[in-house]
Design goal:
Two copies of one chain form a homodimer. The first copy, chain A, is α+β, with helices and mostly antiparallel strands. Chain A has helices at about 1-10, 15-25, 80-85, 105-115, 120-145, 145-160, 180-185, 190-200, 215-225; strands at about 30, 35-40, 45-55, 55-60, 65-75, 80, 95, 100-105, 165, 170, 205-210, 210-215. Chain A contains nine helices and twelve strands. The interface of A and B includes residues 88, 118, 125, 131 and 139 of A. Chain A binds a DNA duplex through helix 8.
DNA sequence: TCCTAGCCGTGGTCTGGCTCACATCATGGA
DNA sequence: TCCATGATGTGAGCCAGACCACGGCTAGGA
């Protein structure tokens, strides 16, 4: 059951079965329906979460109300660690994009687990380092790539994590509206829509509601960089 | 002497005097002159560095040769940890902006230090978390703010870390050319120059070579957000 | 069943910021 | 001292992409 998902999570990967089961037992459980908010930017809170099932978006809102998505996370991925190690309010709002369930762990419990388990600490460091590297890549993309390029890159990333190949291409049920996709790549909905329409007209992909089918991975990848 | 600088570094902050001295002894030392490169993006390498004296820029180059600066780091700040915990080639090129010296530590030595010293691991986690938070802020700025806003924000950050107040304002010897400042905020040199000229004409600051004097912190801060 | 609210597709306009093209100003080496 | 080289200021033109304004589509609730 859901233990399988958690075992893939970086937090657990270094643990043996027994330790993993024990850690799992000490974690809380939360379930939400699509569109519900787990916590808001600015909230205080010191829980770390792992997605067990479903998808969430991490977003921030600018002073004038516009929104920007930092990431879309799926099963096995962790979030909320920032307020753990860098004390302060939550830096993003987490909203579900599908029905979803989570396992959670408090700061104190995590610290107890870290003690005497250097491999777990090392796993967390890897995780944070990888996130930081990705964040730097996003910055580079915003500076160097145009909107269609960023859209292509986002689709490839989503395909990589949520895609399933079939005869007619890679089906990617990303569960995002074009509005959300636009917020993810830092562009307007209209521009993203035009980029998608252009890709579709070239036969690189087919558009479906909250989903795309990638038919020419090669060309799309080339457009991405 | 330089031990004072290192004691402020996050890597050391949790250590007592004796441990700090021992760690310092196990670290290598490097000195470079302005404009020299410590390592290139894509190099292999597993050393972590701490700036002892001087400043460096972390930059990446796009496929078509344009450059983007991720950060300017000064005394006490750490870099190169990414390739440690997230194995892979160096993700950025590090170049000195002034004459500079560094203390370095290899992956293996660091891991030995982490073992049995959970506080050090925790310090590193804090450091990475803080960097990640900053990277996310940069992303938000690129999406939400215009170039003058980003320039203002960059100046405030530099002032915060390298500024010295005097009667006529905060003197910020950032040691960056306008070209480098432009790469830091993800804009063209010309646009940055015009933004700076505009700030100066409003009396918010005075321009000097590789340096600015901030005269109206209040207005500049307001322009930044 | 209809109606409403949210998505999605697509044109037209306007502008921030990039590129190009110079002129000027330092600064250090011969 | 004089020149070369890089840094700095500034204007002109152009264009990607934001913003605006629709019309059509679809799904879920009354």
């Amino acid at each position: 059951m859901d233990n399988d998902v958690l075992r893939q999570a970086p937090l657990f990967s270094a643990l043996d079965d027994e330790a993993a089961t024990a850690l799992r037992a000490s974690m809380g459980e939360t379930k939400l329906r699509r569109g519900e908010v787990l916590f808001h930017e600015g909230d205080s809170g010191d829980k770390l979460y792992v997605v067990v099932d479903g998808k969430v978006k991490l977003g921030r809102t600018s002073s004038d109300g516009r929104e920007n998505l930092l990431a879309i996370l799926g099963p096995g991925q962790m979030f909320g660690e920032l307020s753990l190690f860098d004390p302060g309010p939550r830096s993003a709002t987490v909203t579900t994009v599908t029905d979803a369930s989570f396992a959670s762990l408090s700061h104190d419990d995590l610290l107890r687990w870290l003690e005497g388990r250097p491999m777990v600490a090392h796993g967390l460091l890897s995780q944070l380092a990888s996130r930081l590297r990705k964040a730097n890549d996003v910055v580079a993309d915003l500076v160097f790539s145009d909107v269609p390029g960023r859209v292509a890159k986002a689709l490839l990333d989503l395909a990589d994590r949520f895609g399933r190949s079939a005869d007619d291409g890679i089906h990617v049920h990303h569960d995002l509206t074009q509005e959300e996709l636009a917020q993810l790549v830092g562009a307007s909905r209209e521009t993203v829509n035009k980029a998608l329409a252009d890709f579709a007209s070239r036969g690189w992909l087919r558009l479906e509601p909250r989903s795309v089918v990638i038919m020419d991975l090669e060309r799309l990848s080339r457009r991405a960089r």
